[in-house]
Write a structure and sequence with these properties.
The relative contact order is 0.19. The protein is built from four helices and eleven strands, in the order E-H-E-E-H-E-E-H-E-E-E-E-H-E-E. The protein is of the alpha+beta class and about 230 residues long. A hairpin with a 2-residue loop joins strand 10 and strand 11. It has two domains: about 100 residues, Pseudouridine synthase I, catalytic domain, N-terminal subdomain (Alpha-Beta Plaits); about 120 residues, Alpha-Beta Plaits, CATH 3.30.70. It is elongated. The longest helix is centred in the N-terminal third of the chain and has 14 residues.
Length: about 230
Amino acid sequence: MRIRVNFERPEETCFLGHIDLTRAVTRGLRRTLLPLKFTEGFNQRVKVEMGFPLSVGMIGEDEYFDFYLREEVSEEGILSKLKLSFSRILVIKSIKRISENVPAITSLNAILVHFIYGKTSSKINEKDFESAIANMLKQDTVNIIRFRKGKNGREKNVRPFIRELKILDLLDNGQFLLLFSSLFTRKGSIKIDEVHTILENFGIKNSFDKIVRKKTSVVYKGKVISPMDF
């Protein structure tokens, strides 16, 4: 029995890294006392498939993980146990039984929609801000430098992974709200902090205060769907 869980990672736990979040999910599942399925081998672990990783400090309002049960349990019973077990860690929104044959979430291309709250100079008006974004979106190549531990930086074109970037709000004091939609693929993706660097490169001095991933969609058989729509 395979269960897909839709959850929120609230601000209280947004500084958990992906590995720590995976551990928290595993421990939370153990606390439910459900008949969990474990991996095979000497070092057996709860069989869990996490969704797309969140950057440290990012709030997630539409996140996912899958887990497996050895026995049939009612969805109502599973949901109540999950909500109780994760009450201080995550917000469990809904669950759904899905087929064992459904691809893992992270094996699919995804479209990730974010709200970015930040601040720029109060001297930059909305027209200049929009012009800088439009100029960036017209480019075929938007390069950033990525560094790996112990290695020199390498140039990476992240333009293919930028789907949408637009201003939702800009106040007189420079505080802004951006909508940023990105493409996450096995061939690559763009990191949120790289958006900050790109804006700087196109003349918009800025700092990010809070980032919220609002929606996660996957591309399956040519259609954009929710991970719950299998």
